[in-house]
Design goal:
Order of helices and strands: HHEHEHEHEHEHHHHEE
Largest sheet: 7 strands, mixed
Oligomer: single chain
Shape: globular
Number of domains: 1
Radius of gyration: 17 Å
Strand content: 15-25%
Length: about 230
């Protein structure tokens, strides 16, 4: 099993429906200030995107892309009647014309890519962005971030969103899950702020760290990239 097949499986990363809803609602809340009114937006590696109808409504055109075929099928069904949202496979995004996007989001994906895969993605994003476009790269994990740090962030979020008991049992269950095994065998890719901004600069971006991370985990980073 690799990361794509894991996310395409019936995993238990989200401890219950309340967690799943709160997770995507928080991401949409944090992304909305970056969304240009009437613009064309790509969310690359979007996952379930449960609250993205709000992003599509503001943008006017929202392209959801995920590498997992089952996730794409579910997205197509969820947004079948929404004329502001379309679902694309990665190869369809790669075939898009240059300078066609106002905003590209890639949230909580960089850690699952090898460095050379990440370089390929951001080179693609540089080609697809308009000269005044924006890349939002969320949930980048700094070196030294431990699973305990992530667990504490989840518990604080769970307490605020009222699924603390389920989160506590879910974390115990995760210790024996496919996610834990993949994290142990495949690992996650970590970048400090200098390393990630250097990579973005090499791809043609002027990048800086955002004041706050997208999502519930403040120990991780969000980077903002503008075409240089």
């Amino acid at each position: 099993m690799d990361w794509i097949s894991f996310w395409d499986s019936k995993h238990a990363v989200y401890v219950n429906a309340r967690h799943l809803d709160a997770h995507y609602r928080r991401i949409a809340d944090d992304l909305l200030p970056y969304v240009p009114a009437g613009g064309t937006v790509l969310d690359y590696g979007c996952g379930d995107a449960l609250s993205h109808a709000r992003i599509g409504a503001k943008a006017g055109r929202l392209i959801l892309c995920d590498a997992a075929p089952g996730v794409r099928t579910a997205l197509g069904e969820r947004f079948a009647t929404n004329n502001t949202i379309e679902v694309s496979a990665p190869e369809e995004v790669e075939a898009m014309p240059a300078t066609s996007l106002d905003l590209i989001v890639m949230h909580s994906v960089a850690q699952y890519l090898a460095p050379e895969q990440f370089d390929t993605k951001i080179a693609l994003f540089r080609r697809l962005l308009k000269p005044n476009g924006l890349l939002v790269l969320g949930d980048v994990i700094p070196p030294g971030t431990s699973p305990i740090t992530d667990a504490m962030a989840l518990l604080r979020f769970a307490a605020h969103e009222q699924f603390l008991v389920a989160a506590t049992f879910g974390l115990i269950r995760t210790l024996f899950s496919n996610y834990a095994r993949l994290r142990s065998t495949l690992g996650l890719t970590h970048y400090d702020e200098r390393a990630i901004t250097t990579k973005l600069a090499a791809a043609g971006f002027f990048a800086k760290r955002a004041a706050t991370n997208i999502g519930h985990n403040p120990s991780r980073m969000t980077l903002l990239g503008r075409p240089a």
